[in-house]
Amino acid sequence: MRKRRERRKNVGSEAELRHQQPSVPAEAAQSLSLSRLLPLLALGGLLLLLISYQSFRGPKTISSPSTHLSVYERGLVKPNVGYQEVLNENSKTSENVSDRHFKHPVLAYVTPWNSKGYDVAKKFNSKFTHVSPVWYELKSEGSKLSLVGQHNADTGWVLEVKSNGHTLVLPRVVLEAFPNELLKKKMMWEKAINLILAECEAMGYDGVVLESWSRWAAYGVLHDPNMRSLALQFINQLADKLHSTHSMQDKSRVLQLVYVIPAPRSEVFQSDDFTSEDLRRLSEAVDWFSLMTYDFSSAQYPGPSAPLNWIRSSLKLLLHGASSQQKLAHKILIGINFYGNDFIISEEFGGGPIIGSEYLALLEKYRPALRWNSDVAEHFFMYPDDRNYQHAVFYPSLMSISTRLEEAHSWGAGLSIWEIGQGLDYFFDLL
After folding, report:
1. Could you give phi then psi for residue 421, rounded to 5 degrees?
2. 1 occurs within a structural domain
3. Residue 273 falls within a domain, yes or no?
4. What pLDDT, in 10s, does the model give residues 208-255?
5. Which residues, 6+ apart, have CB-to-CB distance to 271 below 8 Å?
6. Does residue 418 form part of some domain?
7. Which of 304, 319, 216 is nearest to 264 (CA)?
8. pLDDT band for position 15 (50/70/90)?
């Protein structure tokens, strides 16, 4: 997480280390039935059954309006969209790149292996409150800790992204250190935190995005109540240290902590899930929680990337019983994918992630009918490859992203985008 991104290939993050295909919340089961039917549909009567599942609308092309108009003004945010329209319009954006439509926080991830993201972060920096370059890992070798990834860091780029005066840069740090070495020895906590703080001060960062829950889950330490408590204490202590350190550029502002959390994958929390109780215990210390509501489907279980009902049920489960539900919701950054998937659904399972340029190449080659599934709120299309294998392609659209922005707004939540180098240019008109 062929591998699209270092989330799968290198660091892995939550997605690579999740359970085998999890159970689906009951309220989302109906809307997700397409992803489970696809392998069967490919064996016969494919299009007929798909039509019965949802209403299809054929492709439609429109003339290209002036590039200074936004996608809203050009009438492009709609379920009925044709492949040619996407090809014609995706590179055109509003001339007013500083105009923000979504008023809640927006965290944009940038990865070294999708260099387009670096340029996008600079061009559209006013659309983002936070930008997180995926650069660092905190590793351990016995009692020795080291922060690796400095070779990725680019001071000039950081300054350009922050040049508007309000966008903050918080690099992602993945906690690779062995939990038995780190969590059980509190003197190691200070070493780890000092390494992170030193890099923030040296590079002029505004804090960090910490990802550790997947590592701790992989090592099985979250099953132990004592180790789980130590894990939460470590996060709290890191937050305290960041909040007692002032920004190098603005002494009135302290450093921030964004913590990455997996989305619940069933009706009830599993033993290594990040739960509503964990959220409550960290809520006073952590500034924002980057909720990974994407990567729902896989090559073995093809289907939508982030069904809307799953996003809703994840938020309801995390916020259940919270006395200050609205306050906690404001701290959550709902994950939105700017990548898609091209799944093989006949003869054999296969396929995997695609980025914007690959998606456009498929549209150009196969000229498919784009279909809107209102239950999961995603567009998709089907095509047969050169071996006559059926494929199902799910990739974000203006309509799918707009729907998720509306959902986030209804909760008072923000956004976290994985990742901006994989999207199409006109997506940023929505933000």
Report:
1. -75, -10
2. no
3. yes
4. 999 999 999 999 999 999 999 999 999 999 999 999 998 877 778 899
5. 222, 223
6. yes
7. 319
8. very low
3-state secondary structure of 57: coil
Which among 182, 212, 199, 211 is positioned nearest to 255, based on CA atoms?
199
Q: Are strands 207-211 and 350-354 parallel, antiparallel or unpaired?
A: unpaired
d(C-alpha 425, C-alpha 406), whole Å = 20
Other beta carbons within 10 Å of 22: 14
Distance between CA 146 and CA 161 in Å, rounded?
A: 27
Give residue 339's identity as a one-letter amino acid code: Y
Q: List, for residues 376-430, the tens digit of each pLDDT value.
A: 999 999 999 998 999 999 999 999 999 999 999 999 999 999 999 999 999 999 9
Tell me 399's DSSP state: H
Radius of gyration of the CA atoms of the chain, in A: 21
How many domains does the chain fold into? 1
Region 338-342 average pLDDT = 98
Does a structural domain hold residue 28? Answer: yes
Q: How far is CA 188 from CA 135, 142, 192, 217, in A?
A: 22, 11, 6, 20
> What backbone torsions phi and psi does residue 178 show, to the nearest 5 degrees?
-60, 125
pTM: 0.85
Tokens of 234: 């470590």
List the structure tokens of 196.
């992170």
CA dihedral sign, ordered 322, 325, 328, 334 = positive
Domain of 286 in residue numbering reads as: 6-430
The tokens for 262 are 């997996």
Q: Cα separation of 305 and 297, whole Å?
A: 6
Q: 21-30, 48-57, 77-86 — which one is most confidently predicted on average? A: 77-86
The two beta strands, 256-262 and 144-148, are: unpaired
- The answer to whether the CB of 207 falls within 8 A of the CB of 171 is no
Structure tokens at 29: 């089961």
Is the Cβ–Cβ distance between 272 and 18 less than 8 Å? Answer: no
CB-based contacts of 335: which residues, under 8 Å, 6+ apart? 263, 290, 291, 292, 293, 294, 306, 415, 416, 417, 418
We report the CATH number of the domain holding residue 65 as 3.20.20.80
In this predicted model, what pLDDT tens digit does every residue of 203-214 receive, in sequence order?
999 999 999 999
Nearest to 197 by CA among 170, 158, 216, 178: 170
